[in-house]
Amino acid sequence: MRTASRYLLSLFLCLGLLLGAGSARADQPDAQNWPRPRFLTYNVCGGVCAIYQGSRTAWRDTMIHAMDSWDADLLMLQEMCYGQWTLLRDTLAGRTSGGPAYDSVWGAALPESAGCAKWGADTRYGLAIFSKGPAGTIDQSSRAVTFLTQPSGGEQRILLCARTGVRGRTVRACDTHIDYRGANPQAQVAQVAAVTRGYALEGPVVLAGDFNLFPKDTRLDPLYDHGGGTGIFQEVDENDKSHFTGVDCPQSGDRCRSGEETAEPVCSPRADGRGKIDYIFLSAYWFTTVRGDAAACTPGMSDHHLLRGAAAWEH
Description:
This is Endonuclease/exonuclease/phosphatase family protein. This protein is of the alpha+beta class.
């Protein structure tokens, strides 16, 4: 009995690392009082990081627990191996008890990645979107993969988008992973902004992913609709005053290009500095009351923090 108790306590603590918010903060999420819809984005480090606890099942179950605990309507995943996607997809697609089913869509950035062999024979590597609901929640015919320009060379990056139902509305969900090299960030963000601006003419847009840029970086100007930006988006973690810094982010303000760090040395030993590099952007016309929170680092799950977001419908 004591052995079983210790196992359950260990499992609870491991899950708490992913789902907990670390030390107390003003924006710590409240599952009852934060608005809906709800969003998650996570760079899962599928090719580079070892499998969590050496178990595909442990990785899958921890991801599902994070989704269920947050009651996520949309989940965007980056650096995802094809075998990871199918493992999560096959479990969630037909789920009839213990939580909702999720529909999903996948996009390959690379035709193969050696680091993905631990997830199965198909070593494709890319992005995935999960949307709460049965098969057909995502309009698979709307699936679009845009290959992003890379003037400085390096690993191919993509933008994955699809129309999906979210709490009775049709939303365009988009997922991306911006490169960090040379001129690539500026060129790729501008391309993503142009594509998603077009989608916003049709209705709500949710754009999430790993952008490898800090919030005040001018290369993000094409996305933000404030703080010097020229875009159409607000970001879920832009109103947490505990992260307002600099003369352009006074405590008297309501929002700022800021947010809680999602990369830092403990979780991301390869990170160039520490700060927020993962984002959930919401088209400003359609969403209001945005809230955001980065979960604590979960060693072994990823070298990023999972980012949670919430908002209410504006229209």
